[in-house]
Amino acid sequence: MKLFAFSLREYDEKKYLEQICSELNIEYGYTSEYPSMDNLHLAKGYDTISIITNPINQEMLDTLKEYGIKAVSTRTIGYDHIDIEYAKQIGIKVCYAPYSPNSVANYTIMMILMACRKIDFIMKKSALLDFTLKGNCGRELSLCTVGVIGTGRIGETLIKHLSGFGCKILAYDIYEKESVKEYAEYVSLDKIYSDSDIITLHVPGLPENKHMICAETIEKMKDGVILINAARGMLIDTPALVAGLNSGKIGFAALDTIENEAGLYYLSFQDKVLPNTDFHLLSGMPNVMLSPHMAFYTEEAVSDMVTNSVKGSLSAMKGEDSPFIVC
C-alpha cells in the first residue's frame, strides 16, 4: 500500500508515521499543506490519503477518485468534515482514528476547574499587577452538579475521573452504559439542562446534534450555568450562546472548539486580520475562555491518531473489517 499524508506536522506526527509505516511495510509521502483542489495532484500514484480536520467535499472526492485514491483516512476521532455519503456513493472508503480518551477527559476537567475558579480572569488581572479579591470569588466543584451529555469513551472516562471530586454527576446518552451508572445518574436532557450547575458536551458532530445548545435549551438552564465544549463547535448556536452570556443566563463558557473554526485553528495569523467574527466576538467577552481545539493534544493521543489512521487505511485496502472504518 502507498499512503500520502496531507497537513502532516513534522514536529510531532512524522516520527509516528515513519514508525508505523516501517512496521507495516507501507510506502508513504507527505506534505505539510492542507489538501485543496490546487494540491490534490500530490496524491497521484498513491492508494490512500491521510488528512486532519479539513473539509473534503464532493469535488475533492471526485478528483481523488480520478487519481486512483481508494480510501480517505482522517487522523481525528471526528469525521464530519468528510462528505461520508458521497464517498460511499463513489466507492471511496473513509476511516477515522480514535485515541486515548484520557486526553480530552483530563483537559475537560482542567477547563471545568478554571471556569469554577475564574482562573483566566484572575491571571489577566494579575498580569496588570491587580491582586485584589473583588470579582475573583469562585465555586467549589465538589458542591456542584455536573451534567455530562454523551457517555462514549471520552464521556465515560470524564465521569469516572470527576467522581473523585465528590460532585453529583448527571448523564445523558441515547445508549446507556451499566459501567457509567456506578458513578452517575442517567436522566433526560431536560433534567440535565434544568439541574446542572456545569454542563459539558461529549457528543459527535452529527447533523442531528447541530445546535443542540440553542436559545430554547439555554432558557431551560440554571442562571449562571457554566458551559464546557471540548467536542464539536457546531453543537452550540453561537448567537444564542452570546445572548446567554450577555444576559448572565450563562455565567461562563469554556470552549476548546467553536463554530466555523475551519481555516482558523492550527494556523498562524500573526500580523494578519483574523478571518473569524465568532472568535473576535467571543474572545472579547470576560466570561469566555477559548483554547484552539487542543483538548486531544497529548503525545499518547497523537501516536494513537497517526497509527490508527494508517491501520484503518491498510484494513480498507485489504477489504478487512476494522473498527477504524466508517464506511
Characterize the biggest β-sheet: 7 strands, parallel
**Mind telling me the CATH class of the largest domain?**
Alpha Beta
Q: How confident is the prediction overall: mean pLDDT?
A: 96
Radius of gyration of CA atoms, rounded to a whole number: 21 Å
**Fourth-level CATH superfamily of the largest domain:** NAD(P)-binding Rossmann-like Domain
What is the overall silhouette?
globular
Secondary structure class reads alpha/beta
What is the count of DSSP helices, taking H or I runs of 4+ residues? 12
CATH names the topology of the largest domain as Rossmann fold
β-strand amount: 5-15%
What is the string of helix and strand elements? EHEEHEHEHHEHEHEHEHEHEHEH
Overall number of domains: 2
Distance between the termini: 19 Å
Helix percentage? 25-40%
The total of beta strands comes to 12
Task: Write a concise synopsis of the structure shown.
With 327 residues, the protein is α/β, with parallel strands linked by helices. It contains twelve helices and twelve strands. The protein has helices spanning 14-23, 58-66, 84-90, 101-116, 119-127, 153-162, 178-181, 189-195, 215-219, 238-247, 277-283, 299-318, and strands at residues 2-5, 27-30, 48-51, 71-74, 93-95, 145-149, 168-172, 185-186, 198-201, 225-229, 250-255, 288-290.
Present the secondary structure layout.
Blueprint: E1 2-5, H1 14-23, E2 27-30, E3 48-51, H2 58-66, E4 71-74, H3 84-90, E5 93-95, H4 101-116, H5 119-127, E6 145-149, H6 153-162, E7 168-172, H7 178-181, E8 185-186, H8 189-195, E9 198-201, H9 215-219, E10 225-229, H10 238-247, E11 250-255, H11 277-283, E12 288-290, H12 299-318
Parallel strand pairs: 1-2, 1-3, 3-4, 4-5, 6-7, 6-9, 7-8, 9-10, 10-11, 11-12
Helix pairs in contact: 1-12, 4-6
